[in-house]
Hints:
Order of helices and strands: HEHEEHHHHE
Distance between the termini: 11 Å
Radius of gyration: 18 Å
Number of helices: 6
Strand order of the largest sheet: 1-4
Largest sheet: 2 strands, antiparallel
Helix content: 40-55%
Strand content: 5-15%
Number of strands: 4
Mean pLDDT: 89
Amino acid sequence: MASDIEIKIENREVLAALEQLRAALGGSISVEVGTNVVYGAIHQFGGAAGRKDRRVTIPARPFLGVSNEDRTELLAIINDHLQRAWGGERLTGADAARAIGRYLKTSTQLRFRAQKTPDGKAWPPSQRVLARGGGQTLRLTSRLRNSITYLS
């Protein structure tokens, strides 16, 4: 994925469940969720942008990450794959990774509608939204939201 943004799952319960699933299915389970849009990082982390004669500071509006709701759903996906594997269904780590990737892609895209960070905080409104007296930040063309993808 052509992005400098890397978000890792650091929840011990999810990591332990992933390890159990990897052991049950064999092989590795790897999923990357991100964007290849060049301005994705400035919106994720915030910072100075623009030309020398027209610099602006863009506040961070994190859209990538794993929320508490995501952790719950990831555990459900992992447990479902474990139950199916233990029940004799032939699954691979790639099957589980695709299910996790699809979920995280959708969850990330929904943050653009909710206008919230993964931890539930509201995004600061953009200058365009403030000038117009309404609207949604990062939704004018939806190019960033639509660029969210996953690799598994």
